[in-house]
Design goal:
mainly alpha, single chain, 316 residues, 13 helices
Amino acid sequence: METNPKLNKAAPNRASASVSRRVSNSVIEKWKDFAFSVPALVFMGAFLYFPLLYSIYISFTNWNMTRPVMKFVGANNYTRLLTNEEFYQSMKVTFLYTLMDVVFTLAIGLLLALLLNVSSSRLFGFMRGVIFMPYYISMVIAAMVFTWIYNGQYGLLNQVVSWFGMDPVEWLINPSTALPALVAVSVWKGVGFAMILFIAGMRGIPAEYYEAASIDGASRLRQFRNITLPLLSPMTLFLVITSFISSMQVFQSIDVMTDGGPLKATNAIVYWIYTMAFVEFKTGRASALVMILFVIILLLTMFQMWVSRKKVHYEG
């Protein structure tokens, strides 16, 4: 039986055309998926990556916003900052604030979670809501309210102190109390968020673990130490890192309440950057300080992640 040679040639051509169409359609589908991300990428490039790269460039110049001249000075800004005593004083204030803020926020948040996780009643739900509510309050508004509370003459806190026969305290004017007063505002705002996350973590721990521990005769304290704390470690790590990064960038409460005083006792690094850039107009040096802070936060966050590799227990 004879076959048509034209048909024999057309069959491979149709097969190759079908394959090419499938490949073409696959490529088009991939590019269609990518096209949906283009607006987000353009937005990030314009408002995140470009300012970051431009800030790196500015950090190597002597740009002063009061004049258009921008001269390249190399690493001069970095060397002047790293040999400046005020830089180390500002870093000391920042680290001290961060340490107090993270420790007190997590400790009080965990304690509240233990107290308010024992019942699902409406009363306990209402109490959890009240404690969490300050998290949604703007830091500027909270700082203004606490400025009145801390007032040395007619502040609410000094009225409470006077009930115990103590003398009034200038909370925001005394260098020894100004920084703890700022920490108290941040803890008041953030402790509810830590409490809610700890409660969520506790409710994710299987009850069988506690039942088995009770059968073995383990006390409540031992159960907390050997079951609750290890299984809360992922949530604790998340709170430590996010609280650390946030505390290292404290600015609004300082700007509203103390202006970096008294005697620069609250002059944290970000507030110093703001002062250097928009008060002294030393934009190049301020950009260098931003880069130094960025590297410090990045390295310390990576260190926390590295230390936590053997400390954090991920169930399953």
